[in-house]
Design a protein that fits this description.
The chain has 22 helices and no strands. The chain is an all-alpha fold. α10 runs antiparallel to α11. The longest helix has 30 residues.
Length: 451
């Protein structure tokens, strides 16, 4: 297939870095190292605070840390809250097992474990510069790709959520961004093994954060449509990719069925989270005050009933609430949409006191979202085919959080793609006149040549 090189948002000739891939690779390596060093500096200030024993070591990842503790103590994947409550599927398994390995090596809730897991998070976050660079280089140019990688290296959310928080954010971001990179070129692959490898990697990503599954059908269908248009074996390739995901997820699904006697592919806590976010309490956009991790009564109820009966009860309560309060649910959902993209939730005294940095955060998040939308608009006008996966991502992925909880935490898996769009938005402000437009005579699908 003939290819056309499009240098969107870049009026200057190709830079020397673009003409010499080795030079770009050297700069990218420097960016990754710089990103890692910056994050490790933050780790040095943050890791001792993670070992704070208050709240049953809740700073050490809360549910993630409690499950990892159970695994390290040879109790299996169990007890998602501090009391010993038996087997669980409340969380996806990948990150708790990773943390459990660190606990076994360096001690449970120790400073060495805190430093190790935060350093590992930082490494995952720094390595995310690599797929960011290659995605942007594929659709634009090496010069803009380096800008995007540098933006991620210094992006405050990327630094904070990797270097100061024990959770799966940076691991999921790296895995998901790598999958997103692959899916942009997947339709060019004729080998079944490439599609299988994509499915296997996406399955691992789902075991890190099941929310990634929400966009898989759309991204896969887009790749299959392109494959079909190119005359490739789209049906076979699609089935192979799905087989890859099932191969990874099935063992955990079987474990959940044998242990908990439920059909649960990854995690079973959706209805509890839905109830926690939709029960009439609008004081907080995340767990409100009706979650076992933050409410003593709910914790007692969880212990008394057991996980599966407790979740069944929350299922019924959530359905009842949504059935009888559809307008309130719609209003809360709209508030969560706004909160997800701006950081704003409420000016009530109780909430402001709990979140004293809400206003600065709102200014920053709103600016990021506006630049993201500007970048998406500019890119869509320049090349609809290559911008479409990004629009699908920011349109579909947040839906789960729109109906449950909405915090900056839950944007992290797609934050790398947001940074790419922000970079394009910023650059387009300076080079708006140079932005190419699709004309009626031009096809919307233009394959990018990798220089």
């Amino acid at each position: 297939m003939p290819t056309v090189l499009i240098e969107s948002f870049d009026a200057t000739p190709l830079s020397s870095a673009t003409n010499r891939p080795a030079s770009s690779g050297k700069i990218l390596l420097q960016i990754v190292i710089g990103a890692l060093v910056l994050r490790l500096i933050v780790v040095l200030f943050a890791f001792r605070g993670i070992t704070d024993p208050s709240g049953y070591h809740q700073e050490f990842g809360q549910e993630v840390g409690w499950v990892a503790r159970s695994i390290a103590l040879h109790h299996g994947f169990s007890s998602p809250f501090f009391p010993q409550t038996g087997p669980t599927a409340y969380l996806p398994p990948l990150y708790p097992y990773l943390l459990a390995v660190i606990f076994r090596a360096f001690g449970i809730y120790t400073a060495k474990s805190a430093f190790t897991i935060l350093s590992l998070n930082s490494l995952f976050s720094a390595l995310t510069c690599v797929p960011i660079y290659h995605m942007t280089r594929y659709t634009h140019s090496a010069r803009i790709a380096l800008f995007a990688a540098m933006a991620w290296a210094v992006y405050p959310f990327a630094i904070y959520f990797s270097a100061a928080r024990v959770w799966e954010y940076s691991l999921t971001s790296l895995l998901f961004t790598t999958c997103f990179l692959i899916v942009q070129r997947l339709h060019l692959e004729t080998r079944s093994m490439a599609w299988l490898a994509f499915g296997l990697l996406y399955g691992i990503t789902i075991l890190s954060n099941p929310a990634a599954l929400s966009v898989f059908p759309f991204l896969l269908l887009l790749s299959l449509w392109k494959t079909h248009r190119n005359g490739g074996r789209w049906l076979r390739n699609g089935l192979v990719a799905v087989l890859g995901i099932l191969t990874v997820i099935m063992p955990w699904t079987i474990r959940n069925y044998r242990t908990l006697h439920i059909l649960c592919p990854v995690r079973d806590s959706l209805w509890a989270e839905l109830w926690a976010g939709n029960n009439g309490d609008t004081s907080n956009p995340t767990l409100a005050w009706t979650h076992p991790a933050s409410d003593a009564h709910e914790m007692d109820l969880y212990q008394t009933l057991g996980e599966i009966p407790y979740l069944s009860q929350k299922h019924a309560m959530a359905v009842t609430y949504l059935t009888h309060h559809p307008v309130a649910f719609a209003g809360l959902t709209l508030r969560r949409v706004v909160c997800y993209w701006t950081g704003f939730w409420s000016l009530e005294h109780r909430y402001v006191r709990a979140e004293p940095f809400q206003i600065p955060n709102v200014c920053f998040c709103s600016s990021i979202s506006l630049l993201m939308l500007l970048g998406a608009r500019r890119w869509w006008r320049a090349n609809r085919a290559t911008s479409l996966p990004y629009l699908i991502l920011i349109g579909i992925f947040p839906i789960t959080y729109y109906i449950t909880h909405a915090l900056m935490d839950y944007r992290q898996p797609i934050e790398p793609e947001i940074v790419i769009l922000v970079t394009i938005g910023i650059l387009s402000l300076a080079r708006a006149k140079d932005l190419p437009q699709d004309s009626p005579e031009q096809p919307h699908e233009r394959e990018m040549a990798v220089v």
